[in-house]
Amino acid sequence: MAILVTGGLGYVGSHAVKLLIEYGEQVVNLDNLSFGHVEAACGSEVVVGDIGDRECMRKIFSSHDIDSVMHFAASADVGESVVDPQKYYLNNVHNSLAMLEVMLEFGVKMMLFSSTAATFGEPECVPITEDHPKNPANPYGRSKLHLEQILTEYERAYGLRSIWMRYFNASGADTSGLIGEDHKPEHHLIPLVLEVASGKRESIRVFGADWNTPDGTCVRDYIHVSDLAQAHLLGLKALRGGKETTAYNLGNGNGYSVKEVIEVAREVTGKDIKATEVERRAGDPAVLVASSEKITKELGFHPEFPDLRTIVKSAWHWHSTHPEGY
Fold it and tell me: What is the distance between the alpha carbons of residues 300 and 118, in angstroms, rounded to a whole number?
């Protein structure tokens, strides 16, 4: 049996693909190259195409014995989603529905879905558990929540079971240094901070210093991308074992402010990283910190790289050895 990984040449997807290959899985890697890189294939079979292209999807399913899908392909920039929501609903919801249609045609009824902490919006309490109220603060989060709701109905109506992995800031890079984070443009905090350290950027923008947090900057929970990959492998095993549709939060349970991340990056790189305070960014909650108790209890998940310094160090190794990306 093979696994179809959508967006498998992207940041999180490539790390999941690498782990799947190491565990002997056959992987079909579908990516439209909007953010993916063929150099990140990690030995998987690559198909260049889009999940919204039904004929492309049908060719994949008709030529491979696929039992499950890991769905990473999505638009994922909070700020962009606010100014261009149509792009997010078309790509993250409409195109995903096209893929689900073809999955049902071929009787494929297991999916690992790359969701997000943005489904929660401004938290009422922290750490955030899976049953926390959902009130997304931006179209990106709403698009992911819509697909979660759709997948709930698809299990009820069609028996398509899914596990939703809600990330709390994927970070770092594989310890091999072979794959890492390479977005153009980049919109994640840690690589942006490291671009300042490497001289590519003059300063890092801090979106608001008057939030209701200890130092006035937003607080986030960072999880190593390789730990995310491990969680997806555990989720796949659970679905193959009959696990019903459910959601898991993925984080370390520790929040770090923007200022703290910048300071750790200064220590790791030995560079003077200039920070510039600017206005708040639309759609940003003040604090997002996860409880991963559920996935720990049910699937035996334990992060191998929980320390922020380790996360930043692995990211710096990637960016230092790949100054122009792939």
Answer: 24
Share of the chain above pLDDT 70, in %: 100
* In a shared domain, residues 31 and 76: yes
Distance between CA atoms of 177 and 174, rounded to whole angstroms?
6
Contact 305, 311 (CB under 8 A): yes
CA distance 137 to 189: 19
Residue 239 shares a structural domain with residue 294: no
Task: Show the domain range for 234.
Answer: 2-171+222-250
Measured distance CA(273)–CA(318) in Å, rounded: 18
* Catalytic residue status for 140: yes
Is residue 303, in this structure, part of any structural domain at all? yes
Q: Which of 140, 154, 167, 248 is catalytic?
A: 140
What CATH number does residue 107 fall under?
3.40.50.720
Whole-number average pLDDT of the chain:
95
pLDDT digits (tens, 9 = 90+) for 241-273: 999 999 999 988 889 999 999 999 999 999 999
Q: pTM for this one?
A: 0.94
For residues 179 and 184, give the distance between their C-alpha atoms in angstroms, rounded to a whole number. Answer: 15
The better pLDDT of the pair 148, 187 is held by 148
pLDDT classification of 198: cutoffs 50, 70, 90: very high
Same domain assignment for residues 11 and 113 = yes
Give pLDDT tens digits for 90-142: 999 999 999 999 999 999 999 999 999 999 988 899 899 999 999 998 999 99
Given this model, what pLDDT does residue 206 score?
Answer: 96
Distance, CA of 220 to CA of 288 (rounded, Å): 5
CA end-to-end span of the chain, whole Å?
30
